[in-house]
Design brief:
There is one protein chain. This protein has 11 helices and 2 strands; from the N terminus they run H-H-H-H-E-E-H-H-H-H-H-H-H. A two-stranded antiparallel sheet has the order 1-2. A hairpin with a 5-residue loop joins strand 1 and strand 2. The longest helix has 30 residues.
């Protein structure tokens, strides 16, 4: 095994540790163009999955049971991406005024991939229970505590993954790290969450 590792190093091949490290920090290691292309591909795929299973986004983090055409699913996804990243981009200028808008928007869209995992419970579990948890966790714990507890574990795991990937994308785009950068990032995510939620709510209300 040691000889294999030495041979890999001689050939310039990445080690297993380097591969894992690259995957963990993928939003920071991927090129800007590839981040945008993969992000758009996932956005379209997520919209198609949401349309097929009647799941619509509710904010930067969250889905619920609902209808709509494929076109509107794409519009919802684009609205979510743009409104949330507007806040994050504005915040990024605080730590580095030379941040590229395409760079940040592309990496943050790529970093959103873990959130798509939140659609899986909506595909395979009870839709009413799923929507109740997503819209009102307190009511979900009262009606079905076991389901709510399981969904909480899934949601927290996905959220932590997303926050970490988002920070990787943010720090790479701003070329800054540290406590101040992390605090600015967290505040921008909160702002992006509320703006995306309000924007989607108004858009869906107008469509209805």
């Amino acid at each position: 095994m040691a000889s294999v590792r030495r041979e890999s190093r001689r050939r310039g091949l990445p080690s297993f540790r380097e591969i894992i490290k690259s995957m963990v920090r993928r939003p920071a290691t991927i090129s800007s163009n590839n981040a945008l292309l993969w992000g758009v591909a996932w956005l379209i795929a997520g919209a198609m999955i949401g349309w097929h299973f009647s799941l619509v986004p509710t904010s930067l983090i969250g889905y619920t049971w609902g209808g709509g055409s494929l076109l509107w699913q794409v519009i919802y996804a684009l609205t979510l991406w743009i409104t949330s990243c507007v806040v994050i981009f504005a915040a990024s200028l605080i730590v580095n005024r030379r941040v590229g808008i395409v760079e940040l928007f592309g990496r943050m869209l790529f970093a959103r991939w873990p959130i798509y995992l939140l659609m899986i419970p909506g595909m395979v579990t009870d839709r009413v229970a799923y929507s109740t948890f997503m819209s009102n966790p307190e009511a979900s714990f009262s009606a079905n505590p076991i389901y709510a507890a399981a969904m909480t574990v899934v949601a927290v795991a996905v959220l932590l993954w997303y926050l970490y990937w988002g920070y990787c994308a943010f720090s790479r785009s701003t070329q800054r790290r540290g406590v101040i950068t992390f605090v600015v990032y967290l505040l921008s995510m909160v702002g992006g969450y509320y703006l995306s939620h309000i924007s989607l709510h108004m858009l869906m209300k107008g469509v209805a």
